[in-house]
Specification:
single chain; 173 residues; alpha/beta; five-stranded mixed sheet; 4 helices; 10 strands; globular
Length: 173
């Protein structure tokens, strides 16, 4: 995300993420996260991107992908990745993704689905890789979250191209 809280520009573009200087330490943080992801769960708008050959994480992951949809859709297999579509039940989709991930993490893909999962107390950790850029406008990650979410800091690091933040979500008792 950007320093001003956006995950994409106003048109959904993420060109600002690329071509930045990096350090081996940044690459190591990203590699560590990628290795821990066992499944991906994304929102309904991500369903359309599969038809446009957009692959989550640029194809760096070969894990099952679960996508929300508003109408039934048969699973799609592309390049060894199975995309399963779940109709309108976020909790069911998260549960299926967790089962597929086993002891690994489920990564949330998209701002709206991330906020909805936070709203439903379905998120255990938040990982933010913050790029040193201000977009001024775009698709915000957390704007519109309708409740307070307490976080506990698990890990922070900063290198050439990003600041890496990892928080535990403190669930209400």
């Amino acid at each position: 995300m950007t320093v001003d809280g956006f995950i994409a520009d106003i048109g959904g573009g993420v060109d600002w993420m690329f071509g930045r200087p990096s350090a081996p330490e940044d690459d190591a943080v990203v590699a560590k996260v990628i290795e821990r992801i066992g499944a991906v769960f994304g929102g309904a708008n991500k369903t359309q991107t599969i038809d446009d050959d957009e692959i989550p994480y640029g194809g760096m992951l070969n894990v099952p992908v679960y996508l929300m949809t508003h109408s039934p859709h048969d699973p799609i297999e592309r390049d060894g990745i199975t995309y399963t579509f779940i109709v309108d039940d976020i909790a069911e989709a998260v549960e299926l993704a967790k089962q597929a991930a086993g002891d690994k993490w489920v990564s949330l893909l998209g701002a709206s689905i991330s906020r909805q999962c936070l709203q439903l107390d379905l998120v255990d950790e938040i990982h933010l890789d913050v790029a040193p850029v201000l977009l001024g406008e775009g698709i915000p990650l957390f704007a519109g979250l309708e409740k307070r979410v307490e976080l506990g800091c698990l890990e922070t690091s900063a290198f050439a191209s990003e600041t890496h933040l990892r928080y535990r979500v403190v669930h209400p008792k």
